[in-house]
């Protein structure tokens, strides 16, 4: 049974008319423009919240990490709505406009003085600056979380709708799917690069209101790109709630827990079956009393496999959380770190601290095409894998490299602090470039590898939801960052000092020690990932053809009757 895809009117797709890279290119357009819009806000948000809304530095950092964390956490909502009810295209269309409205509201608040606290220098006079409260804070958070809600629901569907334009059963199409993931990351890099250079420069020199306005305009262009490909898309129809079949498997497995599974079960109706989490196989057993015909007492193998996949990928998912906690530092404390340094490049031109985050993307717009055109074909000949190296190997390389980003950050911050306090010298902002550069390389491996891993492990009807788990990892990483900042301040607090990160002046803080702590956590996390990935086995039903499909026979007999033994 082949996977079913329909056009925008619900009619079956035609191979020569729908799908392929000609359709995916419109999705990639939205990927680039949406990333450009949201990155311009998120990556420089700490500057706006600190300087314009007058939140203390540690609170500003937490506002940013909570905002970005919420963006990625809400991707689970987007994935669920897409797979269960709306489909990827309509989910993107609806929530794209929600995000657009959030950008417009941010622009209005940044433009109207009455919606912000009076101007005040937070660095020199922070204790006397009026913090945004009441309706001013409410408007800020409504705008931010409209953007978060819209962007979160878009992200997994951008990936899944683009990937759905390629069929996984066809070897040639499978290679194009791997290429699509690399091109999608290239579009992501281009969006980030423009946001962190041009748009951040506009925010710095023309005002945050103009910057937010440009983000709104760019988002509008992205929505036009999405709509332009409507007639070309291959759409996967929603299959109803994905949580109901999962709940049915768990209930059925518990109900039939005393049943005995055959020891040599390998095939069900010619569909490959995995041997991990065997206790769940009992959900497929028909008891002798014949009372388990209810879907809550007898499930199909594809339902069981779906639950097994979700359980098996959780350890891999968990190992990427620390990686994203490191990313959170580069978007918060490292930006403030740069603001204390000499930002002048040449006479008359200074680089905005937030634009330092563009450094890895400048590198990656050259490295990603090189990786796809040179490294992947070479590795493909050696390994025989369509992606060159497996997604798990790619993730592991990225996790290992990420540790050195924090090592570099700690060493530079120590030198910067000593220079400022003991030598009254201001170091060049380019000293912190290596930490961004190293992390950019690690992200190319980890981010793309994780998305490809989750998409390729998913069964029909759960592509968007599993892809959303990639972004959920970002969410947990940013939330963990907020928790760590608060915990570190509590633990390191003394009578004479408020903690490593409690002051608005980084020269009085110990950001270098915080970076060292993260480097240690990252290294421990890498070894944990090595352990988890060693025992992970790819779902064989996905590595040798298409997704599993239900067979009515699964409900007609006992386990021995439906398994080919």
Write structural notes for this entry:
By secondary structure, the chain is an all-alpha fold. The chain folds into 3 domains: 1-240, Growth Hormone, Chain: A, CATH 1.20.1250; 242-299, no CATH class; 310-537, Growth Hormone, Chain: A. Helices cover 64% and strands 2% of the residues. The protein contains 20 helices and 5 strands. Strands 2-1-5 form a 3-stranded antiparallel sheet. Strands 3-4 form a two-stranded antiparallel ribbon. Helix 4 runs antiparallel to helix 17. The two termini are 23 Å apart. Mean pLDDT is 80; it is low at 266-272 and 543-565.
Layout of helices and strands, plus pairs?
Blueprint: H1 21-42, H2 45-51, H3 57-73, H4 75-86, H5 88-111, H6 122-125, H7 135-163, H8 171-206, H9 208-228, H10 243-255, E1 267-268, E2 271-272, H11 301-318, H12 321-330, H13 333-339, E3 344-346, E4 349-350, H14 359-383, H15 391-422, H16 433-457, H17 463-491, H18 511-534, H19 540-543, H20 559-562, E5 563-564
Helix pairs in contact: 1-7, 1-8, 1-9, 2-3, 3-7, 3-17, 4-5, 4-7, 4-17, 5-7, 5-9, 7-17, 8-9, 8-14, 8-16, 10-11, 12-17, 12-18, 14-16, 15-16, 15-18, 16-17
């Amino acid at each position: 049974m082949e996977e079913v895809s329909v056009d925008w009117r619900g009619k079956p797709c035609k191979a020569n008319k729908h799908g392929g890279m000609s359709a995916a290119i419109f999705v990639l357009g939205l990927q680039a423009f949406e990333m450009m819009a949201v990155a311009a806000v998120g990556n420089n948000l700490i500057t706006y919240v600190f300087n314009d809304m007058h939140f203390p530095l540690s609170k500003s950092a937490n506002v940013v990490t909570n905002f970005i964390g919420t963006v990625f956490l809400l991707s689970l909502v987007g994935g669920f709505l897409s797979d269960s009810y709306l489909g990827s295209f309509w989910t993107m269309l609806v929530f794209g406009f929600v995000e657009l409205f959030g950008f417009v509201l941010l622009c209005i608040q940044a433009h109207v003085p009455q919606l912000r606290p009076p101007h005040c220098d937070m660095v020199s006079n922070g204790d006397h600056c009026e913090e945004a409260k009441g309706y001013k804070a409410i408007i800020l958070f409504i705008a931010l979380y409209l953007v978060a809600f819209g962007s979160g629901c878009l992200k997994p569907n951008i990936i899944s709708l683009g990937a759905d334009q390629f069929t996984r059963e066809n070897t040639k199409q499978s290679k194009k799917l791997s290429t699509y993931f690399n091109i999608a990351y290239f579009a992501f890099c281009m969006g980030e690069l423009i946001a962190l250079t041009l748009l951040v420069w506009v925010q710095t020199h023309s005002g945050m209101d103009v910057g937010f306005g440009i983000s709104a305009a760019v988002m509008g262009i992205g929505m036009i790109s999405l709509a332009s490909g409507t007639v070309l898309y291959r759409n996967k129809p929603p299959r109803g709630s994905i949580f109901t079949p999962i709940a049915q498997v768990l209930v059925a497995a518990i109900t039939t827990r005393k049943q005995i599974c055959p020891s040599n079960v390998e095939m069900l109706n010619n569909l490959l079956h995995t041997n991990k989490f065997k206790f769940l196989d009992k959900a497929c057993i028909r008891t002798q009393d014949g009372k388990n015909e209810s879907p809550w007492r007898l499930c199909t193998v594809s339902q069981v496999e779906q639950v097994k996949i979700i359980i098996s990928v959780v350890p891999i998912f968990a190992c990427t959380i620390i990686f994203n906690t490191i990313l959170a530092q580069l978007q918060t404390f490292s930006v403030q770190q740069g603001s204390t340094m000499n930002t002048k490049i040449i006479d008359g031109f200074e680089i905005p601290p937030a634009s330092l985050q563009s450094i890895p993307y400048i590198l990656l717009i050259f490295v990603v095409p090189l990786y796809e055109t040179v490294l992947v074909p070479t590795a493909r000949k050696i390994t025989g894998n369509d992606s060159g190296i497996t997604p798990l190997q790619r993730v592991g390389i990225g996790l290992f490299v990420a540790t050195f980003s924090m090592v570099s950050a700690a060493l530079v911050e120590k030198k910067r602090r000593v220079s400022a306090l003991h030598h009254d010298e201001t170091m060049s902002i380019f000293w912190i470039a290596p930490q961004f550069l190293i992390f950019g390389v690690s992200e190319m491996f980890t981010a793309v590898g994780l998305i490809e891993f989750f998409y390729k492990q998913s069964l029909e009807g759960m592509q968007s939801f599993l892809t959303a788990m990639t972004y959920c990892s970002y969410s947990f990483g940013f939330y963990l960052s907020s928790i760590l900042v608060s915990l570190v301040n509590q633990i390191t607090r003394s009578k004479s000092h408020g903690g490593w990160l409690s002051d608005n002046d980084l020269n009085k803080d110990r950001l270098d020690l915080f970076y060292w702590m993260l480097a240690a956590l990252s290294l421990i996390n890498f070894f944990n990932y090595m352990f988890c990935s060693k025992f992970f086995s790819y779902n064989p039903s996905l590595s040798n053809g298409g997704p599993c499909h239900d067979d009515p026979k699964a409900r007609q007999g006992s386990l021995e009757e439906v398994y080919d033994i």
